[in-house]
Amino acid sequence: MDLLFSLKKLISFCIKPYGLVLIILMLGLYFVFAKKEKLSKSLLSLGLFLLFLFAYSPFSNLLVSSLEDRYVKYDYAHDGIKYIHVLGSGHVSDETQPLSSLISDSGVKRVLEGILIHKNIKNSKLIFTGYGGKNEISNASINAKLAISLGVKEEDIIMDETAKDTNEEAEFAKNLTKGEEFVLVTSATHMYRALGLFAKVGLHPKPAPTDFHREEIITFFELPSASSLQNSQMAMHEYIGILWSKLR
Fold first, then answer.
1. Could you tell me if 188 and 232 lie in one domain?
2. What residues contact residue 19 under an 8 Å CB cut-off, 6+ apart?
3. Res. 128 pLDDT band, cuts 50 70 90
């Protein structure tokens, strides 16, 4: 199972913008030294074009918006929900850094959104899921630690420190909620795929998207930027995940 998980990650890297552009450019350089001039020029040109395209703000915004525009912010006035499931994200376990710096930007936003909803719904429980990866501490644990430091009671937190991906997070939620209505908190770009995976196990949570990246005002006279490239990378990760889920 770990081998298949690692293989899935490797394939995903190779067909997402960073990996795809890098592989094409490396092949182009190889054929330069192999004296295949026509092929090398074609590959290098393709690699540079794709790099520009994915880093071009109007294009990356189109990729992101098509995922994020499906959902609006959660209505905090809604009551009667018992569980609020906050999906895991990236983190590090460097003791020299403060807690706020250990969790990824998307992870911090997910935790904060979960806390805001929890504070508005009496007797609700926060669910944190996510394994540690290469870190000693799990993502669920470090997210829970942040929530507790911001005033959430420890007895109001439920954790699963073994889930490696959204599929496993959905399975945990299924076993825990037993069909009860609950809120799902994740990044807006990830919400469509997440809801699809939860639906596959028979769950239909209320979406509470956060960590939006779309821009409201876009002009076509934009220079390529690292932030736009990052947005394209994030969006393509979701599109590949959606395709993989449908193929399965």
1. no
2. 13
3. very high
Name beta bridge partners: 157.
126
Task: Check whether residue 122 and residue 198 sit in a common domain.
Answer: yes
**Cα 165 versus chain centre, distance:** 10
**pLDDT tens digits, 138-187:** 999 999 999 999 999 999 999 999 999 999 999 999 999 988 889 999 99
Phi, psi of 54 (to 5 degrees): -70, -25
**pTM score, whole prediction:** 0.88
What's the number of domains the chain is made of? 2
Q: What domain range includes position 15?
A: 2-68+225-247
Whether residue 219 lies inside any domain: the answer is: no
Q: What does each C-alpha distance from 134 to 81, 92, 166 come to in angstroms?
A: 34, 9, 18
Q: Which residues of 206-224 are buried (b: 16+ CB within 10 A; e: fewer)?
A: bbbbbbbbbbeeeeeebee
Assess contact for 126 and 158: CB atoms under 8 A. yes
Whether 62 maps to a domain, the answer reads yes
**CB of 195 within 8 A of CB of 207?**
yes
β strands within the chain, DSSP E: 83-86, 125-129, 157-160, 182-187, 206-210
